[in-house]
Amino acid sequence: MLNYPVRAFRPEATETDRFATVATKRTPLPTLPVMGMQIVDAGTETTVGHLLDATQTQQVFFMNAHCANIRAKNEDYANAVSRADVILPDGLGIDLAARLSGHKLTENLNGTDFTPTLLREAARRGLSVFLMGGKPGTAEAAADKLCLSIPGLRIAGTMNGYEDAADETVAVARINDSGADILLVALGVPLQELWLTRNRHRLAPRLQLAVGALLDFLAGNVKRAPVLVRKARCEWLWRLAMEPRRMAHRYLVGNATFMARAAGAAMASRTPEVTPIRRAMDFTFSLAGLTLLTPLFLLVALAIKLDSRGPVFFSQIRVGKDGRGFRMMKFRSMYIDAAERRAALLASSDRGGICFKSRNDPRITRVGRLLRRSSLDELPQIINVLMGQMSLVGPRPALPEEVAAYPSAALERLSVRPGLTGLWQVSGRADICFDKMVDMDIAFARSRSVLPYLLLLTLTFRVVVSGRGAY
């Protein structure tokens, strides 16, 4: 193990940098009300400067979807959260919950990224940190990693979360004797928050953070998601893939439960905007669907490959909300030269108006005809829904050349996200003419309630089973 710098004196911070201006005024951190909690609404630099400049004890908790679910069921944890000095937003779930109430948080301050940034500024100020938690050896390994990645960081001491923490009086005395300015406690939710709340009056470090799995990540016990996955805010999907048995209930059942609670809290606090509620339901339902239908995806992919030459998926630029283009995904149901043959078939369209649709389209493969009849070719659009390019319910996304030929009245279709299903699907699908389809889509776009969304989603299952209007 590395030799940690010995605590001696705290040098005065003389250089001016991006954090220095934050510390000149002790104004409270801005917050937003989310699900009955005051969540910090500030960037990393502002928050770090505020916490390190504090002269009184500050207990900092991170709040994510999993924590919110525990808070709803565990009264002791809920009380601990209510007593925290600072609650930081951690993850996509809290951001979505804020949007349901009509707010937008400034930044995602997840503990795994935020805490090392805080420690870098702490090192510059000459402050020391004590690491508590994890299995024997984890805190020490994390300390080694921090010393290598943050030059000058002073480690006051380490302690595991098992034998070392068994006697709370001894553990508190050991932390206080170390002279640490900052305490990181990684015992897992809700044990770490309960431990900090219970011992607040006895702990000397003026900044105390409950950091969850941070020490395990630093020690290499748990591998973090690639940077691109983290930037897409899908790190939970990575953890689900790495530990499916342990994480399945937390993320699949837990995320759906959280979004239901978030929607309920938003409705109770104000008259919520329908758009963020629909988006929350899109995210929850598409995530569950993508997970449950993975075996079916694989079977369809195999059938396509065995039936005809070409890729499994077909993607095409379609026009989405506000006229923005996106690449829509489908299972390939046509031969690979279908685009070149389309012009010759326009005269045989079975749908009146602009949008082309042919009952006996010769470009469709044998497997493709079955996929279209059962609507299985549309399943990959669940990914488009998850990415926010589409909704589960809304007008079907049109081709750019179709939109270019729209009459002015039809452009209102573009005021909402395009959907996997909609009014025309449950009313006859391909048997509906263009003008009637537009009227239906505009009626949905003007709806200010989530009830049509839920009703159409339910009716779609009946239509898919019957195969009405599908070809």
TrEMBL record:
The keyword Membrane applies. One of its GO terms (molecular function) is phosphotransferase activity, for other substituted phosphate groups. InterPro entries: Bact_transf (IPR003362), WecG_TagA_CpsF (IPR004629). It comes from the Bacteria. GO terms for biological process: polysaccharide biosynthetic process. Keywords: Exopolysaccharide synthesis, Membrane, Transferase, Transmembrane, Transmembrane helix. The keyword Transferase applies. The chain crosses the membrane at residues 283-304. Pfam families: Bac_transf (PF02397), Glyco_tran_WecG (PF03808). Residues 278-465 form the Bacterial sugar transferase domain. Belongs to the bacterial sugar transferase family. This is WecB/TagA/CpsF family glycosyltransferase. It comes from Thalassobius vesicularis. The lineage of its organism: Bacteria, Pseudomonadati, Pseudomonadota, Alphaproteobacteria, Rhodobacterales.
